[in-house]
Amino acid sequence: MTKFMRRALETGQELSWQASKAALDSCELGLDDIGCVALGTAPDAFDGVHMKGEYLTHGAGAWGKPYLRAYVGGGTGVYAAIHGWYHVASGLFDTCLVVCEEKMSSCHPHPQGAFLSTFDHTTERPFGPNLLWIFALEMNRYMQVHGITKEEIALVAVKNKRNALDHPAAQLGANLTVQDVLNSEVLAWPVNRLDVSPTSDGAVALVLASEEVARRVCEKPIWIEGVGWCLDSAYWTNRDLYYPDYVEKAARMAYQMAGITEPRKQINIAEPYDPFDYKELHHLEGLLLAPRGGAARMTSDGVTQRNGDLPVCPSGGLLGVGNPIAAAGLMKVAELFWQLRGEAGKRQVPGKPQRGVAQAWGDLMQVGTVVVVGR
């Protein structure tokens, strides 16, 4: 994992290379040991290049190898891990290098301009929408249905940014108070600036292997036990935004594969996607780790703290570590790898967690991607 930050010097190729080399070095493998490459990255407009998947092949170690690029918005990072898993689980490959890269700072004047092109050209684009005000609608609906206050939601930003102080790759670790969040600039009510993750550049890579190879090259392999995904309608105006059905359906798919029947009891650590602070609460409920409307109470009661009964985003999440879109999702999977191996350093949760869940979300509030990993 590279450091998440705004990078003026490195290209997307170079960021992909840094993460890929670090992943291969960590398990003492070289490119000759890799059967295929699964790459995840967001719209070409971010990097300002055409055919971005092809552009990144060299940096991602994919030259001359079977190669597939996936993109489902913010859900891409976890989806890329799912793609890599299928390559290996199919029996076609013994190893797969999964790489996710994002260089958002190249998009001028702001990445939100690139997002505008994703909306329906007839019914939505004439309004000039951006994700901030659409998420503001969703946040407001979530608050109104469950009677949740902005103060309760701000606790997520406080927790995650504080957790990120212990992450060596973090962009925005900080000691904040709820009042700091509430007093920050209003972007689109009820969203304040400190409710939102930053624009980031960065890359993450991991190596997937068959059981035979994993046991040979790794003393403490971490296993992908379940994968799930769901794509809902792009017409977000036709859905009640208070609950993420697409996350629940993806989670149920992954849980069934992993043999999980009681997620709250069988999941020890969670890394839900948190580009906005309310989304951590929203996604905890979709992951069936909290009752509908109950994630805010869990947070205020300290359950989701790093030393709580269910640590949530002990890494610092997107709010604290940063949000290079595709790379942010794969960071979630990588963080669980380090946590389950007891190698997370200062951000290590207490005890010996046995199983974790990573989740990402994207496009027009419609994509759910979920991976369950275990020791």
Description of the molecule:
The chain is of the alpha/beta class and 375 residues long. The chain is built from 15 helices and ten strands. A four-stranded mixed β-sheet has the order 2-1-3-6, sandwiched between helices. Strand 4 and strand 5 form a beta hairpin.
Query: Main sheet?
Result: 4 strands, mixed
Mean pLDDT metric = 95
Through-space gap between termini:
21 Å
**Given the C-alpha coordinates, what overall shape results?**
globular
Total helices: the number is 15
Helix amount: 25-40%
Structural class: alpha/beta
Order of helices and strands: HEHHEHEHHHHEEEHEHHEHHHHEE
Number of strands: 10
Q: Unreliable stretches, pLDDT < 50, 5 or more residues?
A: none
Main attributes of the structure:
single chain, 375 residues, alpha/beta, four-stranded mixed β-sheet, globular
Topology, pairings included?
Layout: H1 12-26, E1 36-40, H2 44-47, H3 52-55, E2 67-70, H4 76-89, E3 95-103, H5 112-115, H6 131-146, H7 150-163, H8 178-183, E4 186-188, E5 191-192, E6 201-209, H9 211-217, E7 223-231, H10 245-258, H11 263-266, E8 269-271, H12 277-286, H13 295-300, H14 317-321, H15 325-340, E9 355-362, E10 367-374
Parallel strand pairs: 1-2, 1-3, 8-9
Antiparallel strand pairs: 3-6, 4-5, 7-10, 9-10
Helix pairs in contact: 4-15, 7-12
